[in-house]
Amino acid sequence: MTEKYIKNADFNFIHNQVALIKDSYKKNASPNVIQAVKDIANLKIMALFPNAMDEQKEMLDLSTLKTDQEYNKYIQQLHVYLLPFPKISEAQMKKMFPKNKKLKLPDLDKMNLHQLTYLSWVDISTNKKFIMFELEGKMVGIECKYTLLNKDNICSFCNRFGQVAYISTVTKEKKAKNPDYYKAIGNYICFDSTECNKNITNVDYLTTFLKESLGEKTVL
Ligand SMILES: [Zn+2]
Predict the structure, then answer these.
(1) Which of 24, 136, 144, 197 could be cross-linked to 169 through a Cys-Cys bond (beta carbons 3.0 to 4.6 Å apart)?
(2) Which distant-in-sequence residues (6+ apart) come within 8 Å of 184 by Cβ?
């Protein structure tokens, strides 16, 4: 029995590929077209797991599946191998945001930690949105100011079009000759992080954003 090995974003990606395949069946695409969609999906999925063992490769391979039922079963089976968000204690969370004396914490018991790429919650009283993510093996956290927007927009993290908040965070970047220097970065992201976590298929942007926010590099 192989261990859990699929990250939430990768699982979402696989889910989207399956939706594409189901859609081409539904549209009665020609067998050649369907085969091409499947082959491309299979290649893209395999590329997400360069170190997959034979057993894992076998369960990820969707090239022989045909019916909706078979694809649903495939997804259900993979769901078992979804990696949960790393366990984190209240003390660890508080330590991550030391400037917030009365840090409002999320209710982790009520969250589906299996479908999380990043953990996020808001404190309405201070207008802050907190984001935690395992960056290259280390849990990191940042806090942002947020403004809820009336107009829908595209989320930078998951690319979904929907209700977004504008978040801005002050980076830790410093200028050696100017102690007052600060740099803020802003983004539109889903206000509802549960939805965002269901849609995110790639963590590149999130990773870059967090690295930049946390970057303690000194600019001369
Ligand atoms: Zn999003």
Answers:
(1) 144
(2) 168, 169, 170, 171
The average confidence (pLDDT) of the chain is 91
Which of these ranges, 2-11, 103-112, 159-168, 174-183, has the smallest mean pLDDT?
A: 174-183
Q: Widest CA span of the chain, in angstroms? A: 65
Tell me the angle at which helices 8-26 and 68-79 cross, rounded to the nearest 10 degrees: 180
Q: What is the pLDDT of residue 188?
A: 96
Return the residue matching tokens 């001369």.
220
Q: How far is the CA of 97 from the centre of ligand 1 (A)?
A: 23
| CA 190 to centroid of ligand 1, rounded, Å | 4
Decide which of 108 and 65 is more confident: 65
Q: Note the Cα 178 to chain centre separation in Å.
A: 36
Neighbours of 138 (CB within 10 A): 7
Closest alpha carbon to 10 in 211, 155, 162, 204:
204
- Name the percent of the chain lying above pLDDT 70: 97
Q: How far is the CA of 191 from the centre of ligand 1 (A)?
A: 8
- Residue 46: is its pLDDT beyond 90? yes
C-alpha of residue 196 to centroid of ligand 1, in Å: 4
Distance CA 133, CA 155 (A): 17
